[in-house]
Write a structure and sequence with these properties.
The protein is mostly helical. Helix content is 41%, strand content 6%. The chain has 2 domains: 34-152 and 200-224, no CATH class; 155-197, no CATH class. The chain contains 9 helices and 2 strands.
């Protein structure tokens, strides 16, 4: 029987053109892989009040989990500062590109673009990570002042929405049973939910994986992946 001895484990990451499923055949093909995605339910009363806007005011902000890691890796956020990253994603990402001539023609965009046009280029790879984070944070605050601000709705209103849904479901159950049927159980998912103090807690309570953030930062800095074992070789003749 052949036995082996393990001396060390080293970490690296895939090259840009090399998906994980090309390294380990056991992995699912990358195009079929599964990645976490967050959906933030928002409501904008002004949209609903505007008769010219065909909207009920509801909007889903879709945030791929990898985008949070991207902000930590590229813009210098600490992997534990998920609240700060989410705040930036909800606001900073809404600022148009300063070269967008059509955006300059729209007053709501022009105001925030004027506010950030003299800030350093946060996409400059030569900028230290701490400075990148400061610029993104400043752009986030500018977006809140001049463009939009998303804050948690009062807990009473959020609980009221849950109670309203529950009352409709209970009525549906009674009516369908009176006709000899049963309401599909999938409609009853979350019927007993209670509005939390912070609606973003489920998203911001867990830190990001520091190993993934570190690997993404190395790749962003154009450092080539490690060749396993090459940092342990000895010079010829020794």
């Amino acid at each position: 029987m052949l036995e082996g001895q393990i001396y060390e484990v080293q970490a690296s990451y895939t090259a840009r053109q090399q998906a994980p499923d090309r390294i380990a055949q056991e992995l699912i093909r990358s195009e079929d892989d599964t990645h976490p995605v967050w959906g933030v339910a928002c409501h904008f009363p002004a949209w609903r009040a505007d008769e010219e806007t065909p909207s009920n005011g509801d909007h889903w902000e879709i945030i791929p989990h990898v985008l949070l890691e991207h902000y930590a890796a590229r813009f210098g956020y600490d992997h534990e500062d998920v609240s700060g990253i989410v705040d930036a994603v909800l606001h900073h990402t809404k600022i148009p590109d300063l070269n967008d001539s059509l955006a300059w023609m729209q007053p709501q965009y022009a105001e925030v673009m004027k506010a950030v046009r003299d800030m350093p280029d946060f996409l400059d790879p030569r900028m230290p990570y701490e400075e990148r984070r400061e610029v993104v944070a400043a752009r986030t605050e500018a977006a809140k002042v001049h463009l939009l601000q998303v804050v948690p709705a009062p807990v009473e209103e959020r609980q009221g929405a849950l109670d309203w849904r529950r009352s409709l479901l209970e009525r549906a159950v009674e009516e369908i049973r009176s006709q000899g049927g049963e309401l599909d159980e999938r409609f009853l998912i979350g019927i007993d939910d209670v509005a939390p103090d912070d609606p973003l807690e489920v998203l911001t309570s867990a830190p990001l994986d520091p190993r993934r953030v570190h690997a993404m930062r190395l790749r962003e800095a154009s450092q080539p992946p490690m060749t396993f074992g090459m940092n342990r070789v000895l010079p010829p003749g020794f």
